[in-house]
């Protein structure tokens, strides 16, 4: 596949994935603050919808982002420059945030818990900072010599 198409698909998957993280983070915070969920053991339609969206859109986008990113690394014949190593560390962190948000949604939707962890409540801001770092590294490519 052409490098430009790989890059375009990589960016598209990243936008969809990050949008999904923001949606999950906002829903979790809004739900946690409103405390208007269905009684324990019940099912909140908003949380269930967010879980389905995550399962069928956000998670596949994350997988595609990683696959296209690895393909770009191979196609570009990069030997892991420092900027890319830092970017990968930040993306691993974002993947962990995604997993934690997914678990928080599941626990809230199934009534296992009535509050989200602190990290989930701050995930939107952490994601904004991570996106700024990733985009700056990808565009500027500092430490390249």
Can you describe what's shown?
With 145 residues, the protein is mostly helical. The protein has five helices and no strands. Helix 1 (3-34) runs antiparallel to helix 2 and helix 1 runs parallel beside helix 3. The mean pLDDT is 86.
Identify low-pLDDT runs: none
- Look at the helices and sheets and give the structural class: mainly alpha
- Strand-residue fraction? under 5%
| Helical stretch tally | 5
Rg, Cα atoms, Å: 17 Å
- Spatial gap, N to C terminus: 29 Å
H and E order: HHHHH
The shape is elongated
* Average pLDDT for all residues: 86
Task: Tell me how many strands there are.
Answer: 0
Output the keywords:
single chain; 145 residues; mainly alpha; 79% helix
């Amino acid at each position: 596949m052409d490098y430009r198409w790989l890059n375009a698909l990589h960016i598209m998957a990243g936008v969809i994935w990050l949008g999904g993280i923001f949606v999950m983070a906002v829903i979790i915070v809004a739900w946690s603050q409103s405390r208007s969920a269905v009684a324990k053991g019940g099912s909140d339609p908003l949380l269930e919808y967010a879980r389905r969206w995550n399962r069928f859109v956000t998670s596949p986008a994350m997988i595609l982002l990683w696959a296209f990113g690895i393909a770009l690394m191979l196609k570009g014949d990069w030997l892991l420059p420092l900027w890319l190593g830092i970017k990968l560390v930040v993306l691993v962190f974002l993947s962990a945030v995604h997993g934690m948000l997914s678990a928080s949604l599941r626990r809230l939707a199934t009534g296992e818990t009535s509050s989200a962890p602190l990290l989930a409540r701050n995930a939107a801001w952490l994601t904004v900072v991570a996106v700024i770092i990733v985009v700056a590294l990808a565009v500027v490519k500092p430490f390249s010599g």
